[in-house]
Amino acid sequence: MKARRATFEDLPQLIALWTLEHLDATVLEKRFTEFQVIDEGVEIIGAVGLQISSHHGLLHSESIGRADIGDDIRQMLWERVKIVALNHSLDRIWTDFRAPQWRKLGFVAATEEQIAKLPANFGRNVAWQILLLRGQEGSADAIQKQFAMLQALQMQEREQLQSRIALMKKLAISVTAIVAVLVIAWAVVVFRYGPRFFNR
To answer: Cα dihedral sign for 64, 70, 71, 75?
Structure first.
């Protein structure tokens, strides 16, 4: 068995699986690029869709062609989905799947606070299950906040550096002016009293 992304050539077998699961094949065939499949030689025995919206993923339209190894198929599909999720930097994955295997993989009932962050195009009236792929400190929102804080810190450091440079410039100008005055004073003294001193 091998997990991979669905191709156009897989459509006839995918349509057969979707029909077996009483899914709307006419809608799903237009979204076949969202699907990961498990093939056993030339036969597709499992498929699942992953819709991506920003840093959220939606697992949908699970189709299992071999109920006797359903959990094994789900495990392989999940390993493949994790790779896709990593490539797209997803923070969390949503689903309404009820098979116990998905709970074993870490999906839990979503809280009201979590559901409030659900992308609108995923729908609403579902008993959502969720799996957080990264902790709060690693989420895209947290990373953006940390990046903004880093930018503010860099700006503050830049302003402090510019202030120090301006102060050093003023100090350099002051030292140059003092040296210039001393040189001029020395030149005047030498010019006025120098000949007498050398004559002596």
So the answer is: negative
